[in-house]
Amino acid sequence: MVSYGIYYALGFGAAGALVTWLLSWPYAVPFYLLAAFCLNFFRDPEREIPAGPYAVSPADGKVMAVKSDAAGGHRISIFLNVFDVHVNRTPIGGKIACITYKKGQFLAANKDDASDANEQNVITVDGVIRGQPTRVVFKQIAGLIARRILCYVQPGSVVEAGQRIGLMKFGSRMDVFLGAEWEVLVKTGQRVAGGSDPLARLKGAA
Hints:
Layout: H1 2-22, H2 25-41, E1 54-56, E2 61-68, E3 74-80, E4 87-89, E5 94-102, H3 114-117, E6 120-129, E7 132-142, E8 149-151, E9 158-159, E10 164-168, E11 172-178, E12 182-184, E13 191-192, E14 198-202
Helix pairs in contact: 1-2
């Protein structure tokens, strides 16, 4: 993922060098700042995945909403601003059951309507945690600025909890759908780190 940052940074750096040569260095400052921003945006830090019957956060960001449905399930929505790490990770280990891409709008990702209306990639993971089967669905959702969703896994792939599975460029949203077998551990307004912060704990797991 870091290679994307290098790619953009080299482009802006080259533009800055050209402007410096044609005009003078003060005119090139915005290009150098953009190069530094891209290197920071596409950073990909290592994370320590917690042991235990957890569903970890698939992304860095702020928890915008925690909602329950009539069946006892939960939707956890996470907003990623342009300063967050945008590498995406799988909440649980298991097998990728399906991946569904859906075209859509580019509403601001912090709006609730964006969950269904925006362009998105829906990933379903079937796993068995300490003998208990479970299914977790999560969405990579494009935002007002983010117009590129990258996914590096495919149906049938076997993944581990916290494993890198993709990337969303320049501000976006992640929704996680958990069944009634999960106990939510986070609250609205809380900041989470992808791969290292648990969102929920599997009820009854030994």
